[in-house]
Structures are given as structure tokens and as C-alpha cells.
Design a protein that fits this description.
There is one protein chain. The chain has 161 residues and is mostly helical. α1 packs antiparallel against α2. The chain is flat and about 105 Å long. The protein has 4 helices and no strands. 0% of the residues are buried.
Amino acid sequence: MRAMQQSIAELEAKLSGNDATEGDDDDMEEVEREHAVKLIELKVYQVIDDIDMLHSEIEMAKQMEAMKLKNADQDKREGSAPRGDKEPDWRLDSQSYSQIDPRTGKAAHPILNSSGQPMRPFILTNDRQRIKDSVFRPDWALPTMTVDEYLQQEQERGNII
């Protein structure tokens, strides 16, 4: 295909470099005809490649559909619920079911019901933000004052001669 694109580029260069002499009119018509045929051949090859790619994509889609049906049948045989419908893995408050309420010391009631609606008032804390902030912090303690501030404190304490 690259060779065909190179030959098309050469023919286009010949067409653009036309001096238009009368004896060359027949030659230029032949070059134009050859250029048009090469362009058509290139487009035909591109369409054939696209059709092959579409066939392979259709085959992949059929395989994916068969895998989905197989998984659904396997879930039915095992008696489990279809994935995503009743599994609480996606829930953000999954830890809250086993937590203890810090105000009362008793087991906390779930914040959300099975349909995802709040059952009681709750306070959003910055615990997630604190955890996210601690991920990218350095492993060592950073200085809390400059060297000049430290020397000034030491001077005030009388530790500097």
C-alpha cells in the first residue's frame, strides 16, 4: 500500500510540474488516467481492509455476547443474584454497618437503606481527604521553622555564646 501511495505522489508531482506543451498533451492524459486508476485501486484496498476489520469486530462482539450469556447462565445455576443488582460492593458506606457510634457507644445503624436512600442524618467528615493527603506526603518530618528562626530562639534561651 505504501508503494501505491508513493506512485500516486510521483504521478501528482508529474501533474503539477506540467509545462503544457502540445506534444505532451497525450502524455499528460496518460499520466492523469494512470493517476485516477491508482487512486481508485488505493481506495479499493482501503475498503477491503476496513471490511476485514469490521468482520473481526463483529466476531469479537459475538464472542462477548456469548460470554455474557454464559456468565448469566452460570449465575442462575449457582442461585446467585445477577452481578450489579443486589451486591453491595459498589456501596461507599459498606464499612458503616459494622461501626460503633462514637456518641452512644452502641452499634451504628446503617446510613443508607437497600435502595441507597439515607435512613438517618449523617455528617460528612474530611477523613477521606485526610487519607488522600497523607498518600503523597514525605516519609520524614519536614522542618517547621527556618534556620534563622531556630538561631533566634537559641539566642533568646541563651544557648549561643
